Amino acid sequence: MSAASHSVPPQPATLGVILAGGRATRMGGGDKPLRTVGGRSILDRVVARLKPQCEAVIVSANGDPSRFAALALPVVADTVPGQPGPLGGVLAALDWCSQNRPDIDWLLSAPGDCPFLPDDLAARLHAAALAHAAPLAVATSGDRSHPVIALWSLSLHESLRHALTVEDMRRAHDFVARHRAARVAWPTMPFDPFFNVNTADDLARAERLISLHQRQ
């Protein structure tokens, strides 16, 4: 039997969305993903990680989109009023995908403040979703689940809209809990690939990690 007969099925076309709507209150405000670490913005690092794994990538953020112009990516604002948080960003991305890329059936979401996302994020989440016949696959590391670092089927579109607009749901954990969700664990050594930058101390730690592990 040839090696090709053992190959895994091709990954379904996937839209990546970078959730860049946080207000960075613990860092004095502003756009946290635009802070620089290792000579590049955190957001630029996230884009570099997701682009090879996705058919296309968009940014979820409110306000003036021109501040992200250097990325040359679509910037999508919330479609639900009232600062709905990360779930609002996911819904906006699902809306955008339905309108602009109806050929895509899966959405990969990740925060804009995680500079070390793994290269196999989409592949492993897709494999888990397929194995469990699940419309959701969520990344975990250590003892933590990361519900906004996840793969979402477009079949969840109207369920999420109802949760946000009718139930006023805001916690991603709550939405994930009501659906079949596969979970995929990543090791936390030599560092957690889902480490996110929330404070000035986190920014300094990210600099050290980049220096120690030569993360480009």
Indicate the topology:
Elements: E1 14-19, E2 36-37, E3 40-41, H1 42-50, E4 56-60, E5 75-76, H2 86-100, E6 106-111, H3 121-131, E7 136-141, E8 144-153, H4 157-165, H5 172-177, E9 181-186, H6 200-213
Helix pairs in contact: 2-4
Task: Give an account of the 3D structure.
This protein has 216 residues and is α/β, with parallel strands linked by helices. The chain has helices spanning 42-50, 86-100, 121-131, 157-165, 172-177, 200-213, and strands at 14-19, 36-37, 40-41, 56-60, 75-76, 106-111, 136-141, 144-153, 181-186. It has six helices and nine strands. The strands form two sheets. Strands 5-4-1-6-8-7-9 form a seven-stranded mixed beta sheet, with helices on both faces. The longest helix has 15 residues, at 86-100. The radius of gyration is 17 Å and the shape is globular. It starts with 13 loop residues before the first strand and ends with a helix. The relative contact order is 0.17.
